[in-house]
Amino acid sequence: MTTPVITKMSSSETIAMTAPVVTKGGREEVTMRFILPSKYVKAEDAPRPVDERVVIREEGEKKYRVVRFSGVARENVVSKKVEELRKCLERDGYNVVS
Known about the structure:
By secondary structure, the protein is of the alpha+beta class. It has one helix and four strands; from the N terminus they run E-E-E-E-H. The strands form two sheets. A two-stranded antiparallel ribbon has the order 1-2. The longest helix is centred in the C-terminal third of the chain and has 17 residues, at 75-91.
C-alpha cells in the first residue's frame, strides 16, 4: 500500500505504508503515528507535508511488539488482540505495565 505525500516544495511523492501504525486516543480524538521508511534518516530528509496537522519528528529508537490483523478495529477485536499480546509478552519474560 502506498500513499502520496504532497509537499510544499515539490510535486507529490509516494511513500510506502509501514508497520507498525501506532494509534493513541479515544472516541473524541485519535492520533496516528506512521513509521517512515529507513531512507529518511533524519526528520528533515522526509517530504514536508502541506497539511499543518501532520507533524514529522524524530523520536529515537524504540522497540515495539505488534499484532497484525485485518478488518475493522472494533473494541472487542482490539481487546482480544491486546490480551493475546499481553500473554505473549509475559510468556517471553516481559513485564507489561500498560
